[in-house]
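Backbone-to-sequence.
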């Protein structure tokens, strides 16, 4: 297996932790000096950077949340003067003011390097033609993969999101070998290819690099079978750097976090307590090399776990499991925690269910209700009532046994749930809480 940066990606654990501590101390000094928000928070807690003498001392520091970024909108969290910032990205701001992030020239170089690492781990090299079907703009995803691909030496097709039939035409004509998109959009492409009568085997596609939303192992199998590719997962978020925080190798047993640039912790999302290795909880990230926009103990709200065992690929960086969902997107139905990815796993295991579903949560009186709308194949949708009822009962029982909470399942005909060209919208929450 190819490794982009073996001197770092294969470092012994002791050396990784020593490097992390040195870079952490430098980062804390930088934010204490240059970021008013951090300086004030540290003073409130009676902490100075010199108090952090080991990685264990990290837990003494306050968390950073998305609310902190909104309160310091737009440039209050920057650690360098604006004249040193050469790139500005931001979130969509759908829940209020967007979060604004900046990059120095060196930040952009580091970002490209980190993306090159996980793309190389997924098997991409200088012979590849990479088609990027993420939206270009303030969203970090497309640019991260774009510059990482160019650093590797691959040819880049900056297609952008949407226009699915043209995406397929370009795959055919330009001999695309690697697809970059959300996993849900990859399914949309596969469906459209089937309608157009395009055989995936006639394409030169070999690998897909998918991120931007949680997805299950069942969806991975679905994409691999329908597109005839190897589907790999990668992880990142704009507030920390964008894509490049972590990515899978071809072993596909978790995403390697670039620990020379980030410290990962798993906390209890309710108490904030750091959990022992292997525990499932909320991922917290501290950046170690970001110049313009360093983050200390940023609460990602993503639910996952960490595996410190050495991978068969030779990399020693810790691996994070696929995210189960987000702690703030988690649904609580009748006191039970429910993640859309759990439901997705159930549906993919049932023959006849299509890879498109929507969860509708409502409240009747004091009780929460969950309705799961599932696209099914035409033969099931138009089946006689008795057969359809038996199928419904099967799905409802399986969901009840996995989730521990009952749900009403509604079968809908193919193509009736809106398709996503970016992140899929899985949940409609109608509760007035």
């Amino acid at each position: 297996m190819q490794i982009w940066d073996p001197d770092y990606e294969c470092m012994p654990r002791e050396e990784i932790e020593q490097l992390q501590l040195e870079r952490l101390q430098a980062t804390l000094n930088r934010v204490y000096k240059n970021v008013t928000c951090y300086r004030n928070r540290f003073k409130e807690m009676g902490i100075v950077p010199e108090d952090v003498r080991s990685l264990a001392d990290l837990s003494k520091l306050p968390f950073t949340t998305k609310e902190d970024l909104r309160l310091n909108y737009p440039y209050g969290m920057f650690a360098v003067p604006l004249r040193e910032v050469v790139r500005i990205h931001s979130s969509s701001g759908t829940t209020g003011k967007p979060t604004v992030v900046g990059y120095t020239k060196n930040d952009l170089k580091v970002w490209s390097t980190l993306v090159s690492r996980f793309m190389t781990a997924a098997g991409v090299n200088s012979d590849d033609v990479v088609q990027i079907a993420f939206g270009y703009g303030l969203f970090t995803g497309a640019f991260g993969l774009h510059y990482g691909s160019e650093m590797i030496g691959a040819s880049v097709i900056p297609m952008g999101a949407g226009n699915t039939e043209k995406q397929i035409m370009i795959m055919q004509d330009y001999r695309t070998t690697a697809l970059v998109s959300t996993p849900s959009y990859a399914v949309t492409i596969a469906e459209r290819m089937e309608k157009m009568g395009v055989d995936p085997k006639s394409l030169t596609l070999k690998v897909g690099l998918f991120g931007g939303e949680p997805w299950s192992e069942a969806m991975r199998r679905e994409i691999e079978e329908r597109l005839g590719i190897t589907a790999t997962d990668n992880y990142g978020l704009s507030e920390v750097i964008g894509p490049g925080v972590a990515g899978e190798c071809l072993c596909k047993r978790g995403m390697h976090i670039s620990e020379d640039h980030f410290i990962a912790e798993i906390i209890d999302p309710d108490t904030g307590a750091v959990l022992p290795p292997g525990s499932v909880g909320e991922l917290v990230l501290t950046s170690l090399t970001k110049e313009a926009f360093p983050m200390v103990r940023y609460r990602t709200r993503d639910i996952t776990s960490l595996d410190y065992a050495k991978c068969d690929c030779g990399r020693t960086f810790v691996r994070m499991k696929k995210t189960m969902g987000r702690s703030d997107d988690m649904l609580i139905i009748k006191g039970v925690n429910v993640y859309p990815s759990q439901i997705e796993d159930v549906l993919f295991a049932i023959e006849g269910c299509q890879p498109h579903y929507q969860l509708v949560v409502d409240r009747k009186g004091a009780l929460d209700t969950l309705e799961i709308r599932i696209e099914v194949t035409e033969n099931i949708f138009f089946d006689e009532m008795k057969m359809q009822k038996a199928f419904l009962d099967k799905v409802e029982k399986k969901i009840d046994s996995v989730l521990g909470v009952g749900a009403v399942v509604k079968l809908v005909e193919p193509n009736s749930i809106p398709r996503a060209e970016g992140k899929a919208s899985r949940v409609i929450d109608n509760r007035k809480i």
